[in-house]
Fold these 2 entries.
Entry 1:
Amino acid sequence: MSGLRRKLFSFIALLALAGWPAVVWAEQPHPFAGNRVATVMTRNVYAGGDLAPVIAAPPDQLFQAVAAAYAQVQANNFPVRAEALAREIDRARPDLVGLQEASLFRTQTPANGPGSPATTVAYDYLQILVDRLAQRGLRYEVVGVLQTLDVEIPGAFSPPSPLAPLSDIRLTDRIAIIARADQTTADLKLSNVRTGSFTAFLTVPTNAGPPIASRRGWVSVDAKVRGKSFRFITTHLEPLHPGIQVAQAGELLNGPVNTSLPVIMAGDFNTRADGTGTATYGIVTAAGFADAWSQAHPGSPGYTCCHPADLQVVGPPLDERIDLILTRGGFVALSAVVLGDAPADRMPSGLWPSDHAGVAAALGLP
């Protein structure tokens, strides 16, 4: 028996002695993990395009920049990527998933201005992902959704695009929680779904129009697993302004985290877990939160960010860990896994599932 297998069997034996079930990640169906174990996941699914050129574009190039950004969204093909994301969820079978950048793209052709918002749905990432999961026989339901960014700008298109030469492109950014809804999870009870927007947010100036309000927030739900309750929260904190990000973390701690329940936060915190970035990670851990990945893999980097904006490019290895599962209240991290970080995770077309990797963890409840 190899040293790795000895370590694995020793770990399983220790779990059994401690009264916990052995949690093994497998590409096969498995029932709800009982004995008061909750499996959770965070996944930034990536809007699919880089908005920086749109923000920087001068007035005479804005419409072309919008069309180029939308072409990148189309090339990064979320309906294809959603199959890879569904495969990840199928592998981990999380009870609760926090999603970031669960985008909604709508169009209006020809363009008719901001007074008439675009309503024709081009891509609804949340619905597409739920449908892909259903095709795998997995029932997941949307628990709560918060709309953050909502911006609409005309794009200048040319054949073979089916859109008119000048068409409105509307991006609505969302964060969401989805939960298993199959019969085997009868022990999972959900209540008290809440959403909240941060009062601290970044206003991004543009060269060709009004500033864009980069609003962010959180979604939470109270869950009960075999009689044991906890609060699950997902969020996506500001990446471009450290002071605003720290303020948003404070609003989390004074808002949905302010409960007597044990708490799990799963999200894209945009703060490096090694402490070399913003102060947010230190502030949250100083408030009593434990890092599930660090508990399960002491000393392992567990990088989650970031693949290139063009998801067909292999790019350098991931080099920072900003997608986190944080717990407070006595949880035990039985196992954790990073998903979507290896070349083997790419789709046959060459696309990465997202520009981020995801994280799933099996947590023994206090």
Entry 2:
Amino acid sequence: MIALIDYEVGNINSLAILLEDLNLQFCITRDEKIINNSTKIILPGVSNFSYCISNIMKFGLDKILKSEIIDKKKFILGICSGMQILCNSSEEGNVKGLGFISGDIKKFPDDYRLRVPHIGWNKVKSNNNPLFIDVDKEERFYFCHSYFFSPDNRSQKKMIISETRYGKSFCSSFNYKNIFGVQFHPEKSQNIGKKIIKNFANL
């Protein structure tokens, strides 16, 4: 059973519809016992970083998620802001994240020659990670963001499993051990987005 974390942000309903279409067992929850009994976790997010972290703390999910992900090594997929708050910190609000992933969230520069936020379909160049099984190496996914993940150092770049070019190349998904994150929105990416969620469910 997949625990779809409800911390009052994100496209919960869109993700629920996608999971239903795939006939996957899931529960929209922030209940500790239900999360403990889940097999995997999806952490959505469509909001600013500081608000997401504030709600995670308000509901006591930081300790629950640490226990499940860091201690028990349960698979998690963070989506958009849900991906970003897994990291150390963000320039959006200058606040600390959960720190499960070594790296920070950077803002596209103010003088960027392309429109920010980055909204719409864009090409995702992926590697052979299990999250991208049966997905074209240069498939298109839907994005909506103004910030992107930047790993701490060269060795941490190994966790990058796809990149996308928007003026410059940025990390559009990462994987470190049991932790996965995607900057794009599978729930808005039609059938190709379903493949990502199905692959995650099959891990």
